[in-house]
Amino acid sequence: MSTTRAKRLLLAPSILSADFTRLGEELAECESAGANWIHIDVMDGRFVPNITMGAFIVEACKRATKLPLDIHLMIEKPELHLESFAGAGANNITVHIEACPHIHRTLQHIKSLGCRAGVALNPGTPVGAIEAVLGDADQILTMSVNPGYSGQKFILSTVAKVREIRKKLDVLKSSAHIEVDGGIDAQTLPKMKKAGADVFVAATAVFKHPKGTQAGIKSLRNAMRGA
Ligand code: DX5
Ligand code: ZN
Domain locations in the chain? Predict the structure, then answer.
């Protein structure tokens, strides 16, 4: 194991697959079953084909859980909306490199709002695209599906990207998290863990688990504990 790797592995259920008629209860179940962060997928129908939720939902989640809120912005011009999400209660804000020509400025902007700053990259984006700001980000989000929807198939080639990012962070002696998002379940999680990921986002594997949300969390926590 690398020396600079953050010691704690974190589980971040994505509410994209939650039952929104009972969101508060879903969040309470996540909290009691041992989730660490709540991941909120914001999509604008432009950067990605789907439209999901905005700051209004973040604010509702803030009132319903004490867990840190991890906001994944899959939107064009995310820099225009940072104050709004921070004001709604975001703890972490992640923007996509593909949507940010001024990524250094955007990461500093997020930090100035008191949030942890993350940069995300799509499966088709090489690690080199974020290399210049690896030392500026608090978390690197590696997409293991093309963003837009939950329930997609895990893209195996992204495991090697995680390994590559982990090596680069080690060289920098950075304690930034590597967060993986898309198709994470009890089978794919160990591969990403071994490659150096330490934050695991999951929507389907948590909220669509045949035995319910708490069982979904427990199954992933078991996978996190394994080899
Ligand atoms: C995809 C989102 C993911 C998604 C993951 O665009 O960023 O967070 O909710 O869903 P699963 O875990 O079902 O692949
Ligand atoms: Zn996400």
Answer: 3-226
For residue 52, give every residue at least 6 positions away whose Cβ sits within 8 Å of its Cβ, in sequence order, or none. Answer: 16, 41, 42, 43
**Shortest CA distance to 51 belongs to which of 39, 42, 40?**
42
d(CA 82, CA 93): 8
Q: pLDDT tens digits for 157-166?
A: 999 999 999 9
Cα distance between residue 180 and residue 100, in whole Å: 20
Is residue 201 within 8 A of residue 220, CB to CB? The reply is no
138 among known catalytic residues: no
Per-residue pLDDT reduced to its tens digit, 74-118: 999 999 999 999 999 999 999 999 999 999 999 999 999 999 999
The rounded distance, in Å, linking the Cα atoms of 129 and 147 is 17
Closest Cα to atom 9, ligand 1: which residue?
150
Which ligand 1 atom is nearest residue 208's CA? 13
Q: Cα(220)–Cα(205) distance, rounded to whole angstroms?
A: 8
| pTM greater than 0.70 (yes/no) | yes
* Residue 181 annotated to the active site: yes
Which numbered ligand comes closest to the C-alpha of 202?
A: 1
Does any ligand 1 atom lie closer than 6 A to the CB of residue 151?
A: yes
Residue 69: strand, helix, or coil: strand
Q: Which CATH architecture has domain 3-226?
A: Alpha-Beta Barrel (3.20)
| Residue 144 Cβ contacting ligand 1 at under 6 Å | no
| Ligand 2 geometric centre to CA of 148 (Å) | 9
